Amino acid sequence: xxxxxxxxxxxxxxxxxxxxxxxxxxxxxxxxxxxxxxxxxxxxxxxxxxxxxxxxxxxxxxxxxxxxxxxxxxxxxxxxxxxxxxxxxxxxxxxxxxxxxxxxxxxxxxxxxxxxxxxxxxxxxxxxxxxxxxxxxxxxxxxxxxxxxxxxxxxxxxxxxxxxxxxxxxxxxxxxxxxxxxxxxxxxxxxxxxxxxxxxxxxxxxxxxxxxxxxxxxxxxxx
Length: 223
What we know:
The protein is an alpha/beta fold. The chain folds into 2 domains: about 5-115 and about 210-220, Rossmann fold (3-Layer(aba) Sandwich), CATH 3.40.50; about 115-210, Rossmann fold (3-Layer(aba) Sandwich), CATH 3.40.50. It has 8 helices and 9 strands. The protein has helices spanning about 15-25, 45, 70-90, 115-125, 140-150, 165-175, 195-205, 210-220; strands spanning about 5-10, 30-35, 55-60, 65-70, 95, 130-135, 155-160, 185, 205-210. It has a 4-stranded parallel beta sheet, with helices on both faces.
């Protein structure tokens, strides 16, 4: 039986990097469909809804080309329509491709939200200790640290743009490594396996890359 994977991004399609990575984990013959919450909007319309503060700030790449900060509230307003569209196209497994925390939304039943998967995995791997986070934007540090905090866990974050080169990744990893983490989580779907390798080589501790972690979950759902 052929399967169909639906991917909702918080920005715009195309995102060939995300589609191809998920496709590499899906069983052979799986059709992959990607739609963006900001599809159909001009740059001017997106800019007219800037983030209100750090808690409302998300990072994405418009059409896979340009790094931008967008409003989480704006994404939440448009996300139900994207999920409904993917279901209407016959997708039987859906991923909301963002590691941010999102409230319940119409049509989100059964959707894979990376933040929930990563939080559960980090809890299982590191019930107590020191968790280092790589995050896209410095203004997200407080919000994202609070997202991961729990009793017995010290959380600290270091900003690293997903579009950064390997030298920048190694420098950020060195700063993060100074905090002696037991585990590192790369808290953005746009980080790549290449960046993970640079980080892991620099710090030398287990490192969770969001997109490949969720890719393995997708494989389990579709297989």
